[in-house]
Amino acid sequence: MTPSQIEAYVDAAAAALNLPIAPGHHPGVLQYVALAATMAELVGAHPLTRDDEPAEAFVPIVAPESSR
After folding, report:
1. Cα–Cα distances in angstroms (integers) from residue 6 to residues 1, 20, 24, 25, 59, in the given order
2. From CA 48, how far away is CA 34, in angstroms rounded?
3. pLDDT computed for residue 56 by the predictor
4. Non-local CB neighbours of 14 within 8 Å, separated by 6+ positions
5. What is the pLDDT of residues 9-39, one digit of tens each?
6. 57: left (phi over 0), alpha (psi -120 to 50) or beta
7. What distance in Å separates the CA atoms of residue 63 and residue 16, rounded to the nearest whole number?
8. In sequence order, what are the residues at sequence separation of 6 or more whose Cβ sits closer than 8 angstroms to the Cβ of residue 20?
9. What is the DSSP string of the chain?
10. pTM > 0.70: yes or no
């Protein structure tokens, strides 16, 4: 997405949700949506095959404590 498309999307989505965005927060919101769009493009660049299946469950691991 181009910067102008991102700004149009953010403004339209905020209006549709009746979600005010403070002027001071607007640049940060645009930056985050641009980052999210970039990540979505990376994920979308890898098509799924018919053999791909979703994980049954995501189980996070806890990093071991470092010994000092």
Report:
1. 6, 17, 17, 15, 33
2. 24
3. 85
4. 20, 21
5. 999 999 999 999 999 999 999 999 999 999 9
6. beta
7. 41
8. 14
9. --HHHHHHHHHHHHHHTT----TTTHHHHHHHHHHHHHHHHHHHTSPPPTT----S-----PPPPPP-
10. no
Structure tokens belonging to residue 30: 């645009």
Q: Which tokens go with 64?
A: 């071991």
pLDDT of 45 > 80? The answer is: yes
Q: How far apart are CA 1 and CA 21, in angstroms?
A: 20
Residues 14, 20 contacting (CB under 8 angstroms): yes
Q: What is the pLDDT of residue 67?
A: 60
In angstroms, rounded to a whole number, what is the distance separating the alpha carbons of residues 41 and 31? 15
